[in-house]
Amino acid sequence: MRKKIQTDVSGEIMRYYIADPHFFHGALNTKMDCRGFSDVEQMNEYMLRKWNSRVRPNDDVVILGDLSWGSAQQTNELLERLNGRLYLIQGNHDRFLKNKAYQTKRFVWIKPYEELSDCKRKVVLCHYPILCYNGQYKLDSEGRPKVYMLYGHVHDTYDQRLIDQFQTITRGSMREYPDGEKRPIPCHMLNCFCMYSDYTPLTLDEWIAYHEKRETTSL
């Protein structure tokens, strides 16, 4: 049964999403992401502070993969410090899942893929971007998307540039629908990469707004 959740700021439970924090992964700080921290300890503490400044103990956080590169002890201690009820979409670097010494009990569930309802919209969740995702063509009566594909894995790399190009091409392509009308093909993929949000988990609406702004400024 899919879980519906309120995302109201009046005290209701919130649901947030974030991808690829890579706690304890020093190489990502100095090489691939070039995050700019003096060391991995400073990176970890900054990400923890940003996370807990937003997430309350009873809020839900869906992690779209690659949470921690740390040891069992390091990751267990991290999980005890993170606020929220945690849900993990398994990433390729979540190696701790194969080790019984890790405290997976902190997660409500751990899955490679899931589809959830979020304020009358569906979110397709996977660590890896899915270019043709389930429900892609579904729109509401006003032509707004009813389904979003949330992912991580590619960080802010050339692969993300290719996904940007794919979405532009797809949205600019016309398709004939059963009613005989030709309309653009919907494509709404959201990379929830942690650096995009300054390491802060965001709601679905916030990720939508971020990517709309990102697309506008990149034109």
Short note summarizing the structure:
The chain is α/β, with parallel strands linked by helices. The protein contains 5 helices and 10 strands; from the N terminus they run βααβαβββββαβββα. The protein is 27% helix and 20% strand.
- Mean pLDDT reading: 92
Number of helices: 5
Q: Can you name the CATH architecture?
A: 4-Layer Sandwich
Question: Which homologous superfamily in CATH is the superfamily?
Answer: Metallo-dependent phosphatases
With strands numbered from the N-terminus, the spatial order across the biggest sheet is 1-2-3-4
Number of strands: 10
Percent range of helical residues:
25-40%
How many domains? The number is 1
The largest β sheet comes out as: 4 strands, parallel
What would the principal axes of the Cα set say about the shape? globular
The H-and-E topology, N to C, reads as EHHEHEEEEEHEEEH
What structural class is derived from the secondary structure elements? Answer: alpha/beta
- Kindly provide the name of the CATH class: Alpha Beta
User: How much of the sequence is in beta strands?
Assistant: 15-25%
CATH topology: Purple Acid Phosphatase, chain A, domain 2
Terminal-residue CA separation:
41 Å
State the low-pLDDT regions, or none: 1-8
Using only C-alpha atoms, the radius of gyration works out to 18 Å
3D structure, described in words:
- By secondary structure, the chain is of the alpha/beta class.
- It has one domain (15-217): Metallo-dependent phosphatases (Purple Acid Phosphatase, chain A, domain 2), CATH 3.60.21.10.
- The chain contains 5 helices and 10 strands.
